[in-house]
């Protein structure tokens, strides 16, 4: 075993021990006493203004606690991220319509384009021919992304670089990932890897934590039945070069997850694909139950198999601690310090508490496409589906509280869109039947994030308070 492998083993085992044996049992300090006190006080609050006062008053204690474990900019960033989660949780429980909190997860398309044409996607032949979706080409510029990070980066815990576009088609994506890491955010993306220009070293060096590679077959004819225009040989060559680059640079990130959508036409190739993934050096192999795409191509039908995850090597964990802050010298200390100086109760917003079902997306994540359109979730806008909630403008108002966002939250809060909304102008949420509980960056990602930061300080009970809502 090499020295590096021994170090990995220690950090991986350390995370496991910290989660199984609370630090308090070993005489260590955890964040739980402070977080549980805050949680209790927030439950008694009647209104977001009061909740903001509670959080502002615990800010310096929380910051002091973190300063014992982290350098100053990281301690400030973590304070902001934790306070934002607590406030978001308060708003969610109260079913508020105007939020003082920010989205803790960002979903961003570096490119709106894709060269594949998978059934069910905005890029499928049928979707394009019939112009079913309101989806235009575009590439995300660095300035727009920097502005998005300046506003949301200090309080967000993660960014997922993919919605409907192929992120690798933007040759600047590694730079965007690195920018997100300077705000201490977890980073992940999803790709077909069926791309001709792929700089494997740039992705390893970007600080990317996690890469999903979507490969639904082990032979070209079966693979391309769904991944239309995809080239399996190119995919496997790119995986090989990524694994080689990780080895060469001595990194265990990005963790590579081979995701296999199980359809009737490809289910027999799962064992072969699993062996291929293992031989290529992939870290995880996942069999995933796909959405029904029968509306696009009735021949493509989901298979009746159970989803599962196979860990291919024991040294990989999804968010390795050594990658939580991979560029300490480049942390956006000034922007974080400016955000830290602003009290939560200095922001506008807040409504009297409500109750009843609501959609988690509207409180937790925010989606931006490569053209800067703000979408509330991963649904694709259509001419008959109002899903463009704002347009991101660096100097403009907070898009997370745009009129459409407020209308959507009000719809769930009172069971109807506000009377002032003209017929036909309602957000799509008023007729949505999608999964409204599973967001891209949610409870599991919050747990992984804080475990990677410090699995001893953020013990199991602390993680429960931060993640379970
Ligand atoms: S209600 Fe539906 S359309 Fe609206 S944000 Fe939630 S999942 Fe998206």
- Total helices: the number is 16
**Secondary-structure class:** alpha/beta
Beta-strand portion reads 5-15%
Bound molecules: iron/sulfur cluster
Distance between the termini: 41 Å
Order of helices and strands: HHHHEHHEHEHEHHEHEEHHEEEHHH
**Strand order across the biggest sheet?**
7-6-5-4-3-2-1-8-9-10
Give unreliable regions as ranges.
Answer: none
Number of strands: 10
Rg from Cα: 22 Å
Shape: globular
Helix content: 25-40%
The biggest sheet, with number of strands, parallel, antiparallel or mixed sense and barrel status, is:
10 strands, mixed
Mean pLDDT: 92
Structure, explained:
With 469 residues, this protein is of the alpha/beta class. It has a domain at 3-100 and 440-467. The protein contains 16 helices and ten strands. The protein has helices at 3-20, 32-43, 48-67, 72-94, 125-129, 142-152, 173-181, 200-205, 220-226, 232-249, 270-280, 333-341, 361-364, 403-414, 443-454, 460-467, and strands at 105-108, 158-160, 186-191, 210-214, 255-261, 284-288, 308-311, 365-368, 373-375, 390-391. The protein has a ten-stranded mixed beta sheet. Helix 2 packs antiparallel against helix 3 and helix 15 (443-454) runs antiparallel to helix 16. The longest helix has 23 residues, at 72-94. It is globular, with a radius of gyration of 22 Å. The protein binds iron/sulfur cluster.
